[in-house]
Write the structure tokens for this entry.
Amino acid sequence: MKNRVRTCICAALNASWIHRNQMGVIFLRICVSILMLGHGLPKLWMLLNGGGSEWLDPLGIGGTLSLALCTFAEVFCSLFLIVGLFSRFSAMVLLINFWVVVFVVHAQGSWAQAELPLLYLICYGTLVCTGAGPFSLDNLIKRRLHCHYSAPPRSMPSGGIRETANASSAK
């Protein structure tokens, strides 16, 4: 039984549709987003209970609006990242959120205070660069649109670029 399970796992990991480096991106995307929900959900309850006036105002836009923006980033963008929808946009919103946390809120604090937000900042920067990976709604939508729409082929002269350049200069 163990050999059969090991064979199935090895076959799945060696399949052409799974790229090993993309599995790391998917793991990062889902795990970091689940962890972020643990930080964002208490902020959502605080916002719903009217606690926005008690929240920090690092950008000078008011405590309630600062809490609403932080809650949107940490809850809704994390949910989008878990399913892989609007992944780069969501990761960019979270990246900006944690840039404010690291370089504005904890700017005068110690390294220990900024260390965890800096790790989140690095993770979201990675996700902005890599995207969601193959197992995401973004990828599914991209594949569906690509299958239903194909651009007309570009016509190229038989001689290539040089022939086109020579023909245009001869005119």
